[in-house]
Automatic annotation (TrEMBL):
Name of protein: Prolyl 4-hydroxylase
Domain Fe2OG dioxygenase: 135-248
Provenance organism: Chelatococcus reniformis
Top-rank lineage group of the source organism: Bacteria
Cross-referenced InterPro entries: DUF2086 (IPR018655), Oxoglu/Fe-dep_dioxygenase_dom (IPR005123)
GO molecular function term, any single one: metal ion binding
Length: 249
């Protein structure tokens, strides 16, 4: 796994990130993920940490690529993929969140009849990605301005994809921006799609299904397909950090 180095004024070590992540009620969060495909982790970051991460956006030295959504039909807005080494704060949270989400992911695979077990630590999973040729880091920083939006999509970057990811709202709704709600849609077999609008405050994280999740039916579990996006920003500027656990080709 590539090393991490400090990219923020007050970096959070892995042990500190693990402590704050472990303080959440993970059985309850797992229940939310099972029931709705998403779960909110309130106040994962402080306002100061949010501003510090958002302030990295103009500095190209932290990033490997810069994407303008309109050029690719993804919506409107832009984002930058971080390069290795990741900022300590995001790298520590990526490491700390993974084991809790891996337990949910393994239970989902079992229920959906999908072969494959995710290892208990993130370094081991990244080693699998890199062995498969997926070596480019996927954590990203997104920026939206008035009129910008993100089309419904799935963040799949190769044959190996971890089924849950996280997004952290860095801006303050109602003060820094208006609009820009996080949206999750679920396509259910032989039924109309279900929409989940997730209200977030500054520093809140949402963990959500990347692609499929199991739903209990009368004859056992079946798969539903999920996509996520962001509604139109009405005013101001909205920053979000995305934590994707698999790397890309």
């Amino acid at each position: 796994m590539p090393p991490r180095s400090s990219g923020l004024a007050s970096p959070v070590a892995d042990s500190s990130a693990a402590a704050r992540v472990a303080a959440y009620d993970w059985p309850a969060l797992a229940g939310e993920l099972d029931g709705y495909g998403c779960a909110v982790l309130p106040k994962l970051l402080s306002p100061e940490e949010c501003r510090a991460i958002a302030a990295l956006y103009p500095d190209e030295s932290h990033f490997r690529s810069h994407i303008h959504m309109a050029r690719h039909g993804f919506g409107r807005g832009e984002y930058r993929y971080f390069k290795y080494p990741l900022p300590d704060l995001l790298g520590g949270l990526r490491t700390a969140l993974y084991p809790h989400l891996a337990r949910v992911a393994n239970a989902w695979n079992e229920r959906m009849g999908i072969d494959g077990h995710f290892p208990g630590d993130h370094a081991s999973f990244l080693a699998r990605c890199h062995d498969a040729g997926q070596t480019r880091p996927t954590p990203l920083l997104l920026q939206y301005e008035p009129g910008d939006f993100n089309c419904l999509h799935q963040d799949l970057y190769g044959d190996l994809a971890f089924p849950i990811q996280a997004a952290i709202l860095l801006s303050q709704p109602g003060a820094d921006f208006t609009g820009g709600e996080f949206v999750l849609t679920e396509q259910r077999p032989r039924m109309q799609s279900r929409v989940e609008v997730v209200p977030l405050r500054q520093g809140d994280a949402v963990a959500f299904a990347v692609h499929n999740r199991p739903v209990q039916g009368s004859k056992g579990s079946y798969r539903v397909n999920l996509r996520h996006g962001v509604s139109r920003v009405r005013s101001g500027r909205r920053h979000t950090a995305g934590i994707i656990f698999h790397d890309a080709k």
